[in-house]
Amino acid sequence: xxxxxxxxxxxxxxxxxxxxxxxxxxxxxxxxxxxxxxxxxxxxxxxxxxxxxxxxxxxxxxxxxxxxxxxxxxxxxxxxxxxxxxxxxxxxxxxxxxxxxxxx
Length: 104
Prior knowledge:
Helix content is 43%, strand content 8%. The two termini are 36 Å apart. By secondary structure, the protein is mainly alpha-helical. The chain has one domain.
């Protein structure tokens, strides 16, 4: 995919990739509740240095990494009230099977 992006990008064009880095965030609350997710994320998400190496090998120049650690404070009571309101509404699930869509 990166070769195709490089091929169609105008001279002087810019590509911006945003991604998470589980290599740098082993203390995420998410991983405390789902510890197996960390190992899966480590396999699925390249470390930033590997992304840079692949971009440079593809032909991109002046590749830089800007780390941005985002943390959010959230009132769990407000969140729970929001989720409870959503879950009290009818839920429609679309299941595709052999080209047909079923609404449950």
